[in-house]
Design goal:
Length: about 300
Amino acid sequence: MTNFLSLSTDQVAAFVELARQGSIRGASQVLHITEQGVRNRLLALERVLHVELYRKSRGVRRTSPLTAEGQQFLPQAIAFLERANELGQMFTDTDQQQTVNVIASQYLIAYLLIGVVQKFHKAEPNIRIHLSSHTEHEIEETLLSRPEITLGVAAPYEGSPDLEYEHLFSMDWSLITPQRHPLLRLKRVRIQDLASQPLILYERGSTGRVHVMDAFGEANVSPQVEMEATNTDIIIRMVAAGIGISIVPLLSSGAVTRGHKVGIRTLEKQIRPIRSGILVRSGLQQSDATKTFIQFIRAQVNNSA
């Protein structure tokens, strides 16, 4: 049986920094110890666990230095350090600030999370939320490759067995056009009605783009894509300027198009709804601060539904 009493936070911290920095040298610089010191801690950790956690080859490395066993151990190592930190603070100043690093799509940051985080900081002043924006595909990759990122809020691009998804809400799609556009006079707008129109769509590879293109394919028509954009706000501004029309998912609050001179028509169930929720690494024991923020997001979404 493994003697976990010999598992030290110094050893585990060296391993986590190796995963985070991608090299022994990078880990040594962050930990302020020699490269040999990092190696000694890693070797000691491997002896305790009876497994090889990282590849020992030298030279330029373009992939993660972790072995498959190291990748499997990483979320548990992060949880180990977080728990050790909580234990160390148990009898110290309870006002010490904690940080939760969150990545999300630009859409969800702009129209959901800014308001949520603003309220959360007032309710929980000792927990700070750090937000950064990425595409859905980048969010999944970043969660798996950067241990310091705690959770993601996004529409999953591709399901991964290494990530757990908790659904929060779905968004239906709507057509947006310049004001007084002829399409607004139709009793019901169909996908086929949009085939000859100059469309502004999300960039290739995005979840939204895939949903829209699938709908055109099911209707047996091809879209006339004039422009692409990575940002919903840019798309709406383009439409308001008369450059084209677009198809976007909209929150029921109306926040996405508020203040813009555009026409809106629902496309009902002609396009698969966008499912958005919380992504975390599988098997990772969340810190109390992270659990508190996740519970707060749930409550805010439920109250606005």
